């Protein structure tokens, strides 16, 4: 049964439209379960009714015509209760309702299961049989599993606007992902095509069909030549059976095989790369479903050939255009830092990616540059988006494709208001971040960028609260040498002197890999990351520590921060290495005082080790992003649970308040460098708790400064007391928005839904 289930799922996922997926589902389920009827009802939220969308066994004319309210009939009962219903004699059930259009009066047995995706009831999947029998546990489990799989297909169809019609290029659509950089933008989508990726080729109508066919044949000829050369080179090293594989490749590439099908697809109105991708994917899906093991293995051969031909086609099709729209929203499967450089900065207004996370290199750069960004958009159909009009909401992690006039007008107003607000706030950026009752709240900047990108901030901040040393490591093709690192760190320290610069030691792992030092783990956020990596590789950490210390000579504004601390032993080991680096430099004639040493409070366990930590280090720096995800057991980069991640969760605020109280008792300065510090309302809470500095990305400085300058410390403390008494995240957010509104500061917050 598992094999049958897998094949049905493959076929459904390969369907080109929702209708095709539903038709496949009812046909294959009815056959697999040997029932007389299989039907799918979908929930129409606007009408609040379940509508029969496809069936095999009931009258086909009932499709789209028969509907019922939740709680009406057996199907409505399943939808209302959101649990399976298994009946031997359905007509005798008190909720049974007869619909003459369906012709279901002759069926006795009934098994219905709800289709649920992320707590939302999307529909009901039903099988029926004439004979009176109760479906067994295996049948029920199978149908529940199929409904769970169908839920994903339906959720994607709802997101892409194809719920009640085949996929169209001109329909409105909304997609959700992980908000990686705040802000809003409207513009034109430009799809970045990774080379030789069959799943990321957009659909385009060819302007010259014959030219596309010529391109195709030239690409196929080049691949045939490459395969011939490879076969000749290996003929003496491989067996006759393996040589035969090269012959099979040549046959598949023949005009009467792959080429002919692709040419036919081009003449139907698809450009060469798209036609190739369509044909190859169709063959692969078919071969992966057949029973014959040999033929299933050939699916990989077809896929490989398709990529080879596509690579040649893309030689004439640049990944990015020569010119870009005035307002470009760059979109791709996985955007890199280099991708940002391909678009002129004055034209790049937003970034969207299927892969990536809120702590990836792209996300870090986007936040520093103030570019709205949404990542982890797993349901994104790239092939149909190139050139489409779109709105990007980086506050909520949403992308609206081909929005209607009402939505476009709504967001144009919000974007204009954001721009006007930024211009107004710019006028007070050189003023102190001091409350209305005279309390000075130091604001610092998070950075990892080149000096010229942040040097202009010196007069506006109290220093660098977090310098991410991993950013230069990410941009390199190898570990940078001690001399290279010394130059980088010296530039940062000199640019902000005499202000303090907090340099975090290399923090990789989790979702931050180096291309030349990959870390592949099943659960990376609970694995080898941060200080765990560098203590296991002291040769890397020692080079970095020596470079930091050497760079600070004569400046005395270096502070060293140790990330991902979870035990006292880690701190002790790191301190010994710092002392050793200092001794080694002294032996070389480089003498300097020991810098301030701090630890990041981001692993919840450290909250219970503060006394021991305070005896060893000079300051605490709270990484509220990781502390939140670890306290709540929520991967903030997983779109399925990203909505559960919120630093304003009562447990997180309680932990932060406890930490602030304890740090004052221990007389150890504590600051916050996570995203909560860059939220105007969150900054007021942190100030009320008593944190001594807030560090944030540069674009957040103006709003946070404006909030602090307009609220007294006394009011911030009152706000904190009120907020800590609230039981839910929703209540906290609502209260913060209410109080900000009362203070005439609601405009500093992201727009409300």
TrEMBL record:
Organism of provenance: Chromohalobacter japonicus
Keyword terms of this UniProt record: Cytoplasm, Kinase, Magnesium, Metal-binding, Phosphotransferase system, Pyruvate, Sugar transport, Transferase, Transport
One GO CC annotation: cytoplasm
Listed InterPro entries: GAF (IPR003018), GAF-like_dom_sf (IPR029016), PEP-util_enz_mobile_dom (IPR008279), PEP-utilizing_PTS_enzyme (IPR050499), PEP_util_C (IPR000121), PEP_util_CS (IPR023151), Phosphohistidine_dom_sf (IPR036637), PTS_EI-like (IPR006318)
Swiss-Prot/TrEMBL catalytic activity: L-histidyl-[protein] + phosphoenolpyruvate = N(pros)-phospho-L-histidyl-[protein] + pyruvate
Gene Ontology process terms (BP): phosphoenolpyruvate-dependent sugar phosphotransferase system
GO molecular function, one term: kinase activity
Lineage: Bacteria, Pseudomonadati, Pseudomonadota, Gammaproteobacteria, Oceanospirillales
Primary enzyme class: transferase
EC numbers: 2.7.3.9
Major localization listed first in the record, in broad terms: cytoplasm
Cofactor field: Mg(2+)
Similarity section: Belongs to the PEP-utilizing enzyme family.
Annotated protein name in UniProt: phosphoenolpyruvate--protein phosphotransferase
Domain GAF residues, every copy: 17-164
Subcellular location: Cytoplasm
